[in-house]
Amino acid sequence: MMPPGLHSAISPSKLHRYLKCPAAFTLENTLPEGPSSPQAQEGTMLHDLTERAIYEYLPRYILPTSSEMAEFLKCDIEHANLVHTCYEELLNIYEPHMEWLVEHTVHLTYYDALLVRCSGTPDLILIDRQNKNLHVIDWKFGSFGPILVRDNPQLLAYAAGALTLLPKQMLDYSVQMIIAQPRLNHLDKTTMHSQAINQWVHYTLIPGVQEVLNSKAEVRPGAPQCDWCRFAVKCRGLKEFRLKQAQRLFSLPLEQLTESELIGAYREAEYVKSLASSAITRILDFVFDVKDKGGDIAGFKVVRGRGKQEWMLPEVELVEILAEHVDISTLYDPRFMSPAQAKKRLPKEVYGIIQKYIKKKPGAPKISAEPEESTNIEL
């Protein structure tokens, strides 16, 4: 039986998860695609800006200032600085005799028909035929922590795909894989021979993808494969794994642990706690979206957050009203007091005079679980 999502792309950026938990590919493809996050949208925008900068400046082999980049790209200086860092690092590698490909999609079908849907788009490929070198660069604009190239399936897949751009007789190449994270001022690089990458494809990637495409693939929960998995909220395997993890942590003989074991247990417990908190947020966001579209899920209700009080009159008019009752200097600290501050500072009778000039904005709606006697939700 053909598994769900067989015709979906096996993105190199998700390989690190799919190879560790083969079932994730099929399970994620049972879910609709969610909206792109603000961080992802910014990342796409920065990749587009970097691409434009390369096309503008690399043919002339020049390094403009960040301000000049901001003016050309029509972006703010913060984003221009990030693009400038990436471009400057590129100039440290690039030489005019090299060929370069920006955002060029590479395919892995050359290695095995099983990889027909395994393709990706490296941010930049540099081909140095003169010295038999290949450079594969990936910009990462997030700030989630340093990412290493060594044993990174995404970069290895990009490198394998880039090698298919060369004739067979020219595959005796060294491949340098680079991850640049300008927000973290972090750069990591590793060089491998083309034969080693070829071995990785045949002995790791192909067997791994074969397992991924099996509709009965095994669920293997753990870090990091569960961190960004869209199916994590519904995954029974992950629930059971975390329960066993929590039970083990509760039963640890703390007095017998070494200092390193104790800090390790603490970090593991913090991780379990953060995953639980993340799962709660995702569940509540999902339920809110269902209710916002007119649906309903028993056991949850929409409640209002705390609203914010605002003055209905301009400051000048409020001062004029209060001037007869209190010292005007008490109304500033150093700005004119808010309605909440007025309730604390003013005598009750004076506050009563201006209370009618206060309006309360309703708080943002949010989802709250009903008391425990309500229907339990089976997720």
Could you please describe the fold and organization of this structure?
It contains twelve helices and eleven strands. It has three domains: about 10-35 and about 95-210, no CATH class; about 220-300 and about 375-379, no CATH class; about 310-360. Strands 1-4-5-6-7 form a five-stranded mixed β-sheet, with helices on both faces. Strands 2-3 form a two-stranded antiparallel sheet. A hairpin with a 4-residue loop joins strand 6 and strand 7 (about 185-195). It has helices at about 15-20, 25-30, 40-55, 65-75, 75-90, 155-165, 195-210, 235-250, 260-290, 315-320, 340-345, 350-355, and strands at about 100, 105, 120, 125-130, 135-140, 175-180, 185-195, 300-305, 310, 360, 365-370. Helix content is about 40%, strand content about 15%. The two termini are about 25 Å apart. The chain is of the alpha+beta class.
Annotate the secondary structure layout.
Elements: H1 15-18, H2 23-28, H3 38-57, H4 66-73, H5 77-91, E1 99-102, E2 106-107, E3 119-120, E4 124-128, E5 133-139, H6 153-163, E6 174-181, E7 186-193, H7 194-212, H8 236-250, H9 259-292, E8 300-304, E9 308-311, H10 315-322, H11 339-345, H12 348-354, E10 358-361, E11 365-369
Parallel strand pairs: 5-6
Antiparallel strand pairs: 1-4, 2-3, 4-5, 6-7, 8-11, 9-10
Number of helices: 12
Q: State the share of residues found in helices, binned by percent.
A: 40-55%
The parts where pLDDT drops under 50 for at least 5 residues are 1-7, 372-379
Strand fraction equals 5-15%
Distance N to C terminus: 26 Å
Secondary-structure class:
alpha+beta
**Structure summary, number of beta strands:** 11
- SSE string, helices as H and strands as E: HHHHHEEEEEHEEHHHEEHHHEE
Shape: extended
- Adjacency order of strands in the biggest sheet: 1-4-5-6-7
Mean pLDDT: 85
Q: What Rg is obtained from the alpha carbons, in whole angstroms? A: 28 Å
Largest sheet: 5 strands, mixed
Q: How many separate domains?
A: 3
